[in-house]
């Protein structure tokens, strides 16, 4: 454990328990960064109110301070009862040295490993993959990377929208225009146009409508020819999704596809079991679960419909089958659903119904990681100027084009320049998605995400590329640096103290499913590094050998933290910019 805040929490707890009794061993000592010291502990004030003899908060603080006499640093009581805590340089240097000696930069491996099922991306094949799915894809992938790094078993589940009544009409349209033309259109990402053309005929052409309806029936009955056509449609669509995944450097593969269609065979049993156990009841011909606590605007219990009155199954039925599969077959400890926040009610009801059915033991936590809506610069749902939804490959290409135009001309050859443009363009889009909290709305703005200053992808990429260039210019291989780290200048101390927080941030990102915390940490790290680099020469002539060795180690450790952090976010880290 290197994180000073956690170390202090632990130490102050022990002091609390020793001074006031074992029941305080779990109390939160309220350690916070301080203006007057490295940290302050605010616990004395609230604790004084809870103690039977109502001591003065300052006396409580003093009792804690007395028990921290051997603490590596100074502890002072101030004001009404704050504890101001300053760590010793030697302690910080020692912790930083340990972190430097560890290829994982102090990030622990969680034991026992948990199985974390992550449901993310999940575009719908009957429509174009849209910009909202960009965000569920990017955030979900970062969470998968973080959990894998922490040593958890990650099972990615791409819950594609690949089934339902529109497929009757889509298959008939595919037959009308011919397979090769249909495949070409779908692979090019024109799923929306394809869908709209089918829809148009469905609404205006009675024979087409009849054919589409019959096709739904033959598809559902498992007719081999129809299934083949469905595969033709799906494979072409998936090739387009894969093009986007590979542009983005997202870790999803075909093996992670677990679309709605995968659950078809389980739906009848899902309904039958729920009905048999009395969890589901018939209401106006439909089979419904009424989880307690959910009411509509009329105060009537809200139904989760699992079989419509015409016998059809829906989105909720599939999700109930999926939850059962994930708990029972995949052995999930945690299930993360990285999905738009407009589906919050759906997931609450599905989770509640699964608990009623006994399919979701208390030990398993399903979590809806709510994704906020993507807005255009006009503050409305993101669209092109002409109002259609935006084709994602075009959007990503534009990011790369803009990055190509923005990066400084340093005389790189074409291939290098192209590589940097791709890294910066994709890095900018991804980082912009990750750096704001996942549930807040977010304005898609190329100028802002590509800016070289502020908490942006390009800034973070530049920060790590600059450290690499320090090593290149000094003719030093970061891997050959040994330290030891010795702290003198305030900027060295501040940088080292900052770096010590890395392991705890990674753990916290995994626990809370909040990648923006890692972005904020990396940004603070890059800022601390900039101050350090401006005030502390590293490879200049005249820097004493031991100072140089220590500063090189600080550079190498910063580089490792930034590189690891960006890798966990899925943001590429180019060698030079
Ligand atoms: N395909 C759905 C959509 O685009 C998202 C699916 C999310 N996952 C789930 N298990 N329901 O809205």
UniProtKB/TrEMBL annotation:
Compartments in which it is found: Cytoplasm
GO-annotated cellular components: cytoplasm
Reactions mediated catalytically: tRNA(Arg) + L-arginine + ATP = L-arginyl-tRNA(Arg) + AMP + diphosphate
Enzyme class: ligase
Biological process according to GO: arginyl-tRNA aminoacylation
Record carries keyword rRNA processing: no
Gene Ontology molecular function, alphabetical: arginine-tRNA ligase activity; ATP binding
Sequence ranges assigned to domain Arginyl tRNA synthetase N-terminal in this UniProt record: 6-87
InterPro entries, per database record: aa-tRNA-synth_I_CS (IPR001412), Arg-tRNA-ligase (IPR001278), Arg-tRNA-synth_N (IPR005148), Arg-tRNA-synth_N_sf (IPR036695), ArgRS_core (IPR035684), DALR_anticod-bd (IPR008909), Rossmann-like_a/b/a_fold (IPR014729), tRNAsynth_Ia_anticodon-bd (IPR009080)
Keyword terms, alphabetized: Aminoacyl-tRNA synthetase, ATP-binding, Cytoplasm, Ligase, Nucleotide-binding, Protein biosynthesis
SMART domains found in the cross-reference section: Arg_tRNA_synt_N (SM01016), DALR_1 (SM00836)
Family: Belongs to the class-I aminoacyl-tRNA synthetase family.
Quaternary data: Monomer.
Protein's name in the database: Arginine--tRNA ligase
């Amino acid at each position: 454990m290197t994180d000073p805040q956690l170390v202090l929490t632990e130490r102050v707890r022990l002091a609390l328990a020793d001074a006031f009794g074992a029941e305080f061993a779990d109390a939160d000592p309220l350690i916070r960064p301080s203006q007057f010291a490295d940290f302050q502990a605010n616990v004395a004030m609230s604790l004084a109110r809870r103690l039977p003899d109502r001591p003065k908060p300052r006396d409580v603080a003093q009792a804690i301070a007395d028990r921290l006499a051997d603490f590596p640093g100074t502890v002072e009581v101030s004001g009404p009862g704050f504890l101001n805590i300053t760590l010793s340089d030697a302690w910080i240097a020692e912790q930083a040295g340990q972190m430097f000696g560890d290829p994982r930069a102090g990030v622990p491996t969680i034991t026992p490993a948990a199985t974390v099922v992550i449901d993310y991306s999940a575009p719908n094949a009957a429509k174009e993959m849209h910009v909202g799915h960009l965000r569920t894809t990017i955030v979900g992938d970062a969470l998968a990377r973080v959990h894998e790094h922490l040593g958890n078993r990650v099972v990615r589940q791409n819950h594609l929208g690949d089934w339902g009544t529109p497929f009757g009409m889509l298959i008939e349209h595919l037959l009308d225009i011919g397979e090769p033309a249909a495949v070409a259109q779908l692979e090019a990402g024109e799923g929306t146009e394809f869908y709209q053309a089918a829809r148009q005929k469905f609404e205006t052409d009675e024979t087409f409508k009849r054919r589409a309806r019959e096709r739904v029936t033959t598809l559902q009955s498992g007719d081999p020819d129809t299934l083949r056509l469905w595969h033709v449609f799906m494979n072409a669509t998936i090739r387009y999704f894969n093009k986007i995944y590979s542009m983005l450097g997202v870790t999803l593969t075909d093996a992670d596809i677990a679309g709605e269609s995968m659950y078809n065979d389980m739906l009848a049993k899902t309904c039958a079991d729920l009905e048999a156990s009395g969890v589901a009841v018939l209401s106006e011909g439909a089979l419904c679960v009424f989880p307690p606590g959910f009411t509509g605007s009329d105060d009537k219990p809200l139904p989760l419909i699992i079989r419509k009155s015409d016998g059809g199954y829906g989105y909720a039925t599939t999700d109930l089958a999926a939850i059962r599969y994930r708990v029972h077959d995949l052995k999930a400890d945690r299930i993360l659903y990285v999905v738009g926040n407009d589906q919050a009610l759906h997931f609450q009801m599905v989770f509640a119904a699964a608990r009623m059915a006994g399919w979701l033991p208390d030990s398993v936590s399903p979590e809806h990681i709510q994704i906020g809506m993507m807005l255009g610069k006009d503050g409305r749902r993101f669209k092109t100027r002409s109002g259609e939804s935006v084709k994602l490959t075009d959007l990503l290409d534009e990011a790369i084009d803009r990055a190509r135009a923005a990066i400084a001309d340093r005389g790189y050859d074409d291939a290098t320049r192209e590589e940097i443009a791709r890294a910066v363009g994709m890095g900018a889009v991804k980082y912009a998605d990750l750096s704001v909290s996942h549930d807040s709305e977010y304005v898609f703005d190329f100028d802002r995400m590509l800016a070289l200053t502020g908490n942006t992808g390009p800034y973070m990429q530049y920060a790590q590329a600059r450290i690499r260039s320090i090593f290149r210019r000094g003719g030093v291989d970061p891997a050959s640096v040994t330290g030891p780290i010795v702290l003198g200048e305030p900027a060295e101390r501040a940088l080292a103290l900052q770096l010590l927080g890395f392991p705890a941030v990674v753990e916290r990102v995994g626990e809370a499913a909040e990648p923006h915390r890692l972005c904020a940490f990396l940004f603070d790290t890059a800022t601390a590094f900039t101050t350090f680099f401006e005030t502390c020469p590293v490879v200049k002539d005249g820097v004493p050998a031991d100072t140089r060795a220590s500063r090189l180690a600080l550079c190498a450790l910063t580089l490792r933290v930034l590189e690891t952090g960006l890798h966990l976010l899925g943001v590429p880290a180019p060698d030079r910019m």
